[in-house]
Amino acid sequence: MHIAMVGAGYVGLVSGACFSDFGHHVVCIDKDEEKIAALKSGEIPIYEPGLAELVTSNVRQGRLAFDDQLKPAVGSADVVFIAVGTPSRRGDGHADLSYVFAAAREIAAALSKFTVVVTKSTVPVGTSDEVERLMRQENSEAEFAVVSNPEFLREGAAIRDFKHPDRIVIGTDDPRARKVITEVYRPLHLNAPPILYTDRRSAELTKYAANSFLATKVAFINEIADLAEKVGANVQEVARGIGLDNRIGPKFLHAGPGFGGSCFPKDTMALIKTGQDNETPLRIVEAVVAVNDQRKRAMARKVANAIGGNLRGKSIAVLGITFKPNTDDIRDAPSIPLITALQDMGARVRAFDPVGMPQARKVLENVTFCDDAYDCAKGAHALVVVTEWEQFRALDLKEMASIMASSVIVDLRNIYSPEEVMRNGFHYCGIGRPKPLAY
After folding, report:
1. Considering 273, 289, 305, which residue would you say is the last residue of a domain?
2. Which residue segment(s) compose the domain that 61 sits in?
3. Which residues are the active-site residues?
4. Residue 234: inside a domain, yes or no?
5. pTM for the whole thing?
6. Does residue 131 share a domain with residue 52?
7. What is the CA 176 to chain-centroid distance, rounded?
8. Which tens digits make up the pLDDT trace of 162-183?
9. Tens of pLDDT along 26-62?
């Protein structure tokens, strides 16, 4: 099938590359001429494991192409996916749908035959209805059907998630559209993913409900971690104990500095706004957002307490800037409010991240960016693990102790054994763990 992917950002590029790998012919379209030129020359604008190889392979085989002009690709497409950004709108937190609606109008003007138009972007309930209305207003003669097909991709594991999905949600009541979209996903038949056919509004709400529920699990275990510290319990054992209950499950029960990224903060806020607009306040989700925002800056106080309470003039080494490993995404990353709070308390901050520093330089000021973890630790009064990159899991602690100004590790991801750290002469501070016995 011929597919046009409008938007060559994270979702559009990953989806387009995977669809082309299935054997479909895909054109990814983006108004950013520099991005398209870079993609044509083989440069991938985002970090995602395996994506560069996937794009290169399918471009070479003639199944994947890039263009900054929408009309040619849309005119010949069987299916057009809208995969543009829906960032939080400045001032009120609503999802900004201006890019979606602009794409819908432009797609409508370019249609030349019956085409299935799919909203892949994360959008509030009712957006697909508005997309259809705008398209019919733009081109009353066009033949098309609008489908909602939300994405469920985890950054750092997006290609596997696309090819081995937990589920595929398709929102449509049009028989022709259902047949076409089923054919698009037919190559996944052998993997036997459950396909949920539903109405468009239910599909749209499913995406927000899923992310908000997962965010709730994160906020919940973080609050349990705080209680565990006070009462001498171990949050990791508690998480295992509740996660073994198959009604709860173990995923997203890892205590840490709070959630971030391109989805959870934006989607929880958009769902809250949808509830408010429909006079159905979502008190649990509101509490999740509030708890998470407070937690990020609270981590700076944890660092301060670990070295005696006063950070003025102290050097703090921060390992990890991205919101999670295997991505260069720093959007709403816990590291950012942590670093700014450390600076507000008078600390000098050194930082290292395997791939996130180019993005971090755009938003963080007065931070010394370092070449590696050991360079970052030189002269530091505390080493703070913020992102659980694999490169940070087996550091030479004896070498670290020899180059730091004082031997303090604040492990905000609980990737180290407290006993091992203390055997190497460090003071250890984790999340939701009882204070280890001194060595």
Report:
1. 289
2. 2-198
3. 263
4. yes
5. 0.93
6. yes
7. 33
8. 999 999 999 999 999 999 999 9
9. 999 999 999 999 999 999 999 999 999 999 999 999 9
